[in-house]
Design a protein that fits this description.
Blueprint (H helix, E strand, L loop, with lengths): L8 E3 H7 L9 E5 L2 H11 L12 E2 L2 E5 L5 E6 L2 E4 L2 E4 L6 E5 L2 E5 L2 H11 L2 H10 L13
Parallel strand pairs: 2-5
Antiparallel strand pairs: 1-2, 3-6, 4-5, 6-7, 8-9
Helix pairs in contact: 3-4
């Protein structure tokens, strides 16, 4: 993410693990950024932008999957999910730095990340959200705009 201009975050299972939650299996790394930065990163990596293809649950204006590192990294911008009230844009309000091998990796705050995952509603996201809360309770809404 060197050279990016706008805020960016790791979300999903990798963010849950970076928060130190126990028992979380990380299958890939989801990076949420601005369209400008996501497009530039994908071009620099030589990764095709397949944004707007999406699924019934998730869509991104910019989306690309980099399969070069040990874990696949998915870059997304203009990210939306279809929740109980229809499509919602996701752009976190909170941003916390976690140091990994001397580099700052940014994640949404714990409560905001949990609320985002609860909103996604899939069983694996609900389990991840509960792993962020010591009591396993749902913590407020967040991560939407």
């Amino acid at each position: 993410m060197a050279g990016t201009v706008d805020p960016w975050w790791v979300i999903g299972s990798a963010a849950v693990a970076l928060h130190g939650a126990d028992g979380v299996e990380v299958g890939d790394v989801d990076v949420l950024s601005s369209e400008r930065d996501a497009s530039a990163v994908l071009a620099r990596l030589g990764v095709a932008d397949v944004g707007n293809e999406g699924t019934a649950l998730f869509r991104s204006a910019v989306f690309g999957r980099w399969e070069g590192p040990l874990l696949t990294v998915e870059f997304m911008a203009g990210f939306r999910f279809c929740g109980a009230d229809g499509w919602r844009a996701v752009w976190p309000v909170t941003r916390e730095a976690v140091m990994v091998d001397g580099f700052a990796v940014f994640v949404p705050g714990r409560a905001e990340l949990a609320a985002m995952l609860f909103g996604f509603g899939r069983p694996k996201d609900l389990a991840r959200a509960k792993a962020l809360s010591p009591s396993g309770d749902r913590v407020g809404r967040g991560g939407e705009r």
